[in-house]
Design brief:
Its EC number is 3.3.2.9. It is an enzyme of class 3 (hydrolase). Helices cover about 40% and strands about 15% of the residues. It is an alpha/beta fold. The protein has one domain: Alpha/Beta hydrolase fold, catalytic domain (Rossmann fold, 3-Layer(aba) Sandwich), CATH 3.40.50. A nine-stranded mixed sheet has the order 1-2-3-5-4-6-7-8-9, with helices on both faces. Helix 9 packs antiparallel against helix 12.
């Protein structure tokens, strides 16, 4: 298994084509007072486009990302995963694989990578951090077929020994939480997992208490309101690709809606709670690598694998930490329900925060991950 150092390219020709398409975009009507209730908000998208054309510096974003050490690793059969690989100077550092989801990227961890590897205090645990891009995303290879999260878990589990780590800790949200569940079931290498999303679930989710019923009702309401994208990307993603692969503004709107709907948006705030620079850098990761479509394949792959449920009678037995952010799309149920599928040793109800935890609430996220690792 070969390991090659890698530098994120600016992809200047692709960036020029994107700019032309953004400049040529024609806006259209929306209902009065629509806000974000019916999808992407026109006022925000106009502001985003103006900044894209007049203020955003993509080369600077690439240079910032290239501060970190990047690799592309052959994890078998010539398939290469991209990853940020940040080794700690600490002799007691432990290997940590930290996994993003959709519509995010390794940019979600930009503000915490250095702090994970070189913590502020010697009393805080240090990590050799491995942050891969999902297969079909960004600078990882495109799979020839639609891989589901269990197959991706196998690739991630091979990535760590390829980098020299026979044992490791795992952290994940969004797809990272689903993959983490499968790693917890299938891997002989993982020592413990920390999750900030309720991805892979026990086959038994029958509610037993009023708290269970309340969680299930809320989860069903969120599914009704927020997951049409999942059904589309999980059934007919290729049709969506014909529109999105030709429209940078379409991709931007598709993503912006999620960063509003899945975040802990404060009262009176109508835009995504992230800077335009961050939003556009994340969008450009998908656009300059032409990976919007192949990034949707994991949804179809999951349904082909069988969905979100664990196999009957199976459970994650390795120690599991739960960071339960209240406004997450994949919000955790009460602890007893989670324990049907996981060996929960730490369960932290967070006071605030949503789906993009390391981005929204880095202090809460870091404190819980560090506390979990220190207590193992």
């Amino acid at each position: 298994m070969s390991i090659d150092a890698f530098t994120i390219p600016e992809a200047a020709e692709e960036a020029a084509w994107i700019r032309e398409r953004v400049a040529a975009f024609r806006f259209f009507e929306e209902p009065e007072g629509a806000g974000w209730a019916h999808g992407a908000n026109r006022d925000y998208m106009e502001k985003l486009r103006d900044y894209w054309l007049e203020g955003f510096d993509w080369p600077a974003a690439v240079a910032r990302l290239n501060r970190h050490a990047h690799v592309r690793v052959d994890v078998g059969d010539g398939f290469r995963l991209h990853a940020i690989h940040k080794r700690s100077s600490r002799a007691d550092a432990r290997p940590l694989l930290i996994a993003h989801g959709w519509p995010g990227s390794v940019l979600e961890f930009e503000a915490i990578l250095d702090r994970l590897a070189e913590p502020e205090s010697p009393d805080q645990p240090a990590f050799h951090v491995v942050a891969p891009s999902l297969p079909g995303y960004a600078w990882s290879d495109r799979p020839k077929t639609m891989l589901g999260p269990r197959a991706v878990a196998g690739l991630y589990d091979r990535l760590m020994p390829a980098l020299g780590y026979d044992r490791y800790l795992y952290q994940g949200g969004d797809w990272g939480s689903v993959i983490g569940g499968w790693i917890g079931i299938d891997s002989a290498r993982v020592e413990a997992i920390h999750l900030n999303g309720y991805g892979l679930r026990s086959a038994d989710l029958h509610p037993e208490t009023p708290e269970d019923i309340a969680w299930l009702q809320k989860a069903m309401a969120v599914r009704e309101r927020e997951t049409a994208y999942l059904q589309l990307q999980g059934t007919k993603p290729q049709s969506l690709g014909f529109a999105m692969m030709d429209s940078p503004m379409g991709v931007a709107a598709w993503f912006a809606e999620k960063f509003v709907g899945w975040s802990d948006v404060k009262a009176g705030v109508v835009d995504p709670p992230y800077s335009l620079d961050w939003m556009l850098a994340n969008i450009m990761v998908y656009l300059t690598t032409r990976s919007f479509l192949t990034a949707t394949w994991i949804y179809r792959g999951m349904f082909l694998e069988g969905g979100f449920a664990m196999p009957e009678g199976r459970r994650v037995e390795v120690p599991t930490g739960v960071a339960a952010f209240p406004h997450d799309l994949l919000a955790f149920p009460p602890r007893p329900m989670v324990e049907r599928g996981y060996n929960v040793v730490r369960y932290t109800p967070m006071p605030r925060g949503g789906h993009f935890a390391s981005l929204e609430e880095p202090e809460l996220f870091l404190a819980d991950l560090r506390g979990f690792a220190a207590g193992l």
